[in-house]
Amino acid sequence: MKPATIAFVLLFSLLAVSSTAEKFDFFYLVQQWPGSFCDTRQGCCFPDTGKPAADFGIHGMWPNYANCRRGNHHQEEDLAGTMLGEDVAAVFSAAGAVGRRGKCWPEYCDGGNALTPWAIRDLVKSLDQNWPTLSCKGGGRSFEFWSYEWKKHGTCSNLEQHDYFARALALKAAHNLTAILAGAGIVPSDTETYSLSSVSDAIAQATGHTANLECNRDADGNAQLFQVYQCVDKEGKQLIDCPLSMATKCGGDSIKLPVF
């Protein structure tokens, strides 16, 4: 067997082994305020189960890297090119063995692992209440939303389908953001504004951990609290302090929490 062929077999074996478990550092549990989702120029659509409650709803639970791995990705490609030749390395990268790690998070890790209704049959009622779709693209079918989140993020979580959704639901229930903010006097209002720091402090004091906040803009251009990114350990069980900061997109410290 030629040295190049041996090198190819060895590298393929190493990558096959490493791909059995995705290597990431933490999850983002992302929850969105439905009033802010809907109070934009594009609006929203309610799911086929009806208008959701005025409560933060799960957007997703996303594996993430504490540091962007883009540099490592290019190093791996260079190594493959050196060992195998550029043509073989290009095929390897196109197959996804290296390429999906070129971002700061893993995604679409197992295209053949589609979400099945049977796997989450006992969670559907809770998912309808806590993980509804508000997008107008899916025709109000929340299962399509859950399927997309599983396909893009869940397949990279090292969790089974049921565990992925059940752990996200358990975290939301254990740290109810709507109740936490209400306890700090931060309640939905069409006229009141709040400081971003007061929202951040309320969440940190109630949960014991910092979170990242994201704003969007209402139809008049006012900043409103849109999404809360809580950071979770790699098992999807416990909140942790967020190892990364992110831009709030708020443009200032004054925000709204619109009525839904």
Main features:
Ribonuclease_T2_eukaryotic, disulfide bond, alpha+beta, globular, two-stranded antiparallel ribbon, 9 helices, 15% strand
How many individual β-strands? Answer: 7
DSSP helix fraction: 25-40%
CA radius of gyration: 21 Å
Oligomeric composition of the shown chains: single chain
Task: Report the biggest beta sheet as strand number plus sense, adding barrel if it closes.
Answer: 5 strands, antiparallel
SS field, number of helical segments: 9
Name the structural class: alpha+beta
Query: What string, H for helix and E for strand, traces the elements in order?
Result: HEHEHHHHHHEHEEEE
Active site: 59, 149, 153
Keywords: Disulfide bond, Signal
Pfam family, one: Ribonuclease_T2
Signal peptide: 1-21
Sequence-ordered SSE layout with sheet pairings:
Blueprint: H1 3-18, E1 26-32, H2 34-38, E2 57-64, H3 70-84, H4 86-94, H5 124-130, H6 142-152, H7 161-174, H8 177-183, E3 194-195, H9 196-207, E4 211-217, E5 223-232, E6 239-240, E7 254-255
Antiparallel strand pairs: 1-2, 1-5, 3-7, 4-5, 5-6
Helix pairs in contact: 3-4, 8-9
Protein described:
- This protein is α+β, with helices and mostly antiparallel strands and 260 residues long.
- It contains 9 helices and 7 strands.
- The chain has helices spanning 3-18, 34-38, 70-84, 86-94, 124-130, 142-152, 161-174, 177-183, 196-207; strands at residues 26-32, 57-64, 194-195, 211-217, 223-232, 239-240, 254-255.
- The strands form 2 sheets. Strands 1, 2, 4, 5 and 6 form a 5-stranded antiparallel beta sheet that branches. Strands 3-7 form a two-stranded antiparallel sheet.
- A hairpin with a 5-residue loop joins strand 4 (211-217) and strand 5.
- The model is unreliable at 5-19 and 69-101 (pLDDT under 50).
- Belongs to the RNase T2 family.
- Residues 1-21 form the signal peptide.
- InterPro entries: Ribonuclease_T2_eukaryotic, RNase_T2-like, RNase_T2-like_sf, RNase_T2_His_AS_2.
- Keywords: Disulfide bond, Signal.
- Pfam families: Ribonuclease_T2.
